[in-house]
Amino acid sequence: MADKQLHDRIDETIHQRTRLAIMVTLAGVGSLEFNGLKGQLGLSDGNLSTHAGALERAGFVKIIKRFRGRKPQTTLAITAKGRKALTNYINLLQGILSEAT
Amino acid sequence: MADKQLHDRIDETIHQRTRLAIMVTLAGVGSLEFNGLKGQLGLSDGNLSTHAGALERAGFVKIIKRFRGRKPQTTLAITAKGRKALTNYINLLQGILSEAT
DNA sequence: GCAAAGTACTTTGTAGTGCAAAGTATAATC
DNA sequence: GATTATACTTTGCACTACAAAGTACTTTGC
């Protein structure tokens, strides 16, 4: 009967602050290497690895594994689904925030 | 050397989705009874009680206990500090979100 | 008038999350 | 060829969010 509450509509995968930072960063540039993202956001290896996995499981980023020379290199790229989810999240938040001001 | 990262500047007390909903709701009306808030946001008693405590500990809301007739009645009221913290949070998020679009 | 049901919360127990430390695997350097 | 570095992943712990259970009454039958 009641509307779905605002806080129920917030996608927790994107709302988490570190993952939000990752998504916003990726939305700007499309894709970034593991270490580039790590440096830009000041994350530990393990932390980024875990959040990257969570975002991949949600289908919001694609994890591309290649070799640069002889070393492994992991790149995170935002997907169409991820971009859409971020846009939805942003629109929802904008709505909440503008109501609040 | 580096700037404080965006995700470090997000206040986790306010960022949590249920507490954000509480703060936004209170910002609109100033104060609400425990049960009013519970109904509007679709929360369980325990959940609201816990989050109210967290917001009080942060100084973002004041918990006022009175008797209406013979029954206890708890009211949550947003504080000046809470309003300021919400504004800061909103401004920060607006910044992040506008960069992302 | 006293037991049963209701009101208004708070506390407890559990499942899930976020994080850095430790681990794995390979490459480069000394 | 042993040590150090690179590029991550996995593990273990501390914390959080939540509903269920608990507390302290009050109101309503009977």
From TrEMBL, chains A, B:
<protein>
    <recommendedName>
        <fullName>Winged helix DNA-binding domain-containing protein</fullName>
    </recommendedName>
</protein>
<dbReference type="InterPro" id="IPR036388">
    <property type="entry name" value="WH-like_DNA-bd_sf"/>
</dbReference>
<feature type="domain" description="Winged helix DNA-binding">
    <location>
        <begin position="19"/>
        <end position="96"/>
    </location>
</feature>
<dbReference type="Pfam" id="PF13601">
    <property type="entry name" value="HTH_34"/>
</dbReference>
<dbReference type="InterPro" id="IPR027395">
    <property type="entry name" value="WH_DNA-bd_dom"/>
</dbReference>
<dbReference type="InterPro" id="IPR036390">
    <property type="entry name" value="WH_DNA-bd_sf"/>
</dbReference>
